[in-house]
């Protein structure tokens, strides 16, 4: 596995299935700025209000056209097989909830404080363990990291405006000062 942060702003993503897990994934993806569509035979729980569209019907081949990634939350292995096949043919990222061996990306356990994001993964082995680690890490962090990130963004922008590089600077002391002083 290779961890990375993925910019989903304005990207079209599809969630297939509208039970508790599908609704939670739709909410997470929407919060990340994705344009979320949902297809489900039945809508079993309320979906986030910022979902772009809901089609109450079964998955059909072709549903993944122009989709960046798909989350499969159907609970039906035969339907999942067809979705996975189409995703692979179209080079669409696919996550089959609760089936890491058939997924090519995983959701992580996330703690957010403004622009500071701490993400924990067990590569699909145990979401419960990832959540436990996330919570332990989150409790250990200072409470002002969002403000520190804003200040450092501004300082970096000032340096860039003067055409100075920020790449090779040692920011350790400045980060410590801000964390301890804000």
Q: Which architecture name of the largest domain does CATH use?
A: 3-Layer(aba) Sandwich
Low-confidence segments, given as residue ranges, are: none
Question: How much of the polypeptide forms β-strand, as a percent range?
Answer: 15-25%
Helix content: 25-40%
Give the overall pLDDT as a whole number. 94
What is the CATH C level class of the largest domain, in words?
Answer: Alpha Beta
Query: Total number of β-strand segments?
Result: 7
Order of helices and strands: EHEEEHEEEHHH
What do we call the CATH topology of the largest domain? Rossmann fold
> In terms of structural class, how would the helical and strand content be classed?
alpha/beta
Characterization of the model:
- This protein has three domains: 12-107, NAD(P)-binding Rossmann-like Domain (Rossmann fold), CATH 3.40.50.720; 108-141; 145-181, no CATH class.
- The radius of gyration is 20 Å and the shape is elongated.
- Helix content is 37%, strand content 21%.
- With 182 residues, the protein is an alpha/beta fold.
- The mean pLDDT is 94.
- The chain has helices at 20-31, 77-90, 127-140, 145-161, 172-181; strands at 12-18, 35-43, 53-56, 69-72, 93-96, 109-113, 116-120.
- It contains five helices and seven strands.
- Strands 3-2-1-4-5 form a five-stranded parallel beta sheet, with helices on both faces. The chain has a two-stranded antiparallel sheet with strand order 6-7.
